[in-house]
Design brief:
α3 links the parallel β2 and β3. α2 runs parallel beside α3. By secondary structure, the protein is an alpha/beta fold. It is 20% helix and 33% strand.
Length: 300
């Protein structure tokens, strides 16, 4: 949906809660000069930067910006409300409250290998790290009976903490005893990266680039942030084979395939770049061995 049409719908239905990815909310706020003041916003899928928060509050005033964490596999399972969990603009992490009756969380050492995640009944099971220590987050749903979710490696780096006493005092005692804090530090960049609210596994991207019909000799994905710090941009650089045996996709068809995979649409196309290079000098090279890394993160 075009942003202008979306704003019309918000006005028509007198919306006072807006939910969406952080990048989408930033784009939406650019259109909201005539929209009645919202009471709160909920964002998902990607961290919201201090610059994005500042921009949103400068347009919408004193809104409460909450966050919800979830996935297609687990559904929504934790919430972050700055009135309860607080907000530190200097911290790269965010605190979420979750219900231990609905979700069992484990944090394994960052050094673990994915193949080592086994049942808790297995003698060789990896022990979780103590509360407060960072590691890789695993989820077991205590609600899903059909299609169970057991020790699912969700790809986030996190640590577990008890519910602070001041937060516990503000909640009903019979409920507070079941709540805990999970501190999310972001995605494990050994596994995946995110852009515009979507997560892309490195293995999936690598398999895509190995397709014979694409003729990719070298590729690189670069994440970077615009100078004002509001928008995260994705750039893909490709070096293609010059063979002309008729088995390769045309450049036009390849562009369509790449955009389809990275979910590039009219409303986020300005944040995406696809470049075809003619040699290795067209890639970002490592400072030491002059190698071409497949993934470059310039957002931090």
């Amino acid at each position: 949906m075009e942003m202008e049409a979306l704003v019309d719908a918000l006005n028509q239905y007198r919306v006072n809660v807006v939910a969406g990815d952080a990048g989408q909310l930033v784009q939406l706020v650019r259109y909201l000069d005539t929209l009645p003041v919202n009471q709160r916003m909920i964002y998902t899928s990607e961290p919201m930067t201090p610059a994005q928060r500042k921009f949103i509050t400068s347009v919408l005033g004193g809104v409460t910006i909450c966050s919800m964490i979830g996935s297609a596999e687990a559904g929504p399972w934790a919430v972050s409300n700055p009135l309860l969990t607080g907000y530190n603009p200097e911290s790269p992490s965010a605190d979420f409250i979750y219900d231990t009756r609905a979700m069992l969380l484990e944090v394994l050492p960052l050094s673990y290998q994915g193949s080592e995640v086994k049942s808790n009944c297995h003698d060789g099971c990896i022990a979780g790290v103590p509360d407060g220590e960072k590691g890789t987050l695993l989820q077991t749903s205590l609600q899903r009976l059909r299609n169970p979710l057991v020790r699912y490696v969700c790809g986030d780096v996190a640590s577990l903490h008890p519910l602070p006493a001041e937060v516990r005092a503000r909640l009903p005692a019979e409920e507070a005893e079941h709540y805990r804090i999970v501190r999310i530090y972001g995605r494990d960049k050994r596994i995946s990266f995110d852009w515009y609210g979507e997560y892309f596994e490195f293995e999936t991207v690598q398999a895509l680039m190995r397709q014979a019909s694409w003729g990719i000799l070298q590729w690189q994905v670069i994440l970077w942030t615009k100078p004002e710090g509001l928008d995260k941009c994705l750039e893909v650089r490709l070096l293609r084979s010059t063979a002309s045996d008729g088995a390769l996709l045309s450049e036009e068809d390849l562009i369509k395939e790449v955009k389809h995979f990275f979910m590039v649409f009219d409303f986020n196309e300005s944040l995406f770049q696809l470049k075809f290079v003619t040699g290795l000098d067209g890639f970002v090279r490592s400072a030491t061995g002059r190698k071409v890394p497949n993934f470059v993160d310039r957002t931090t």
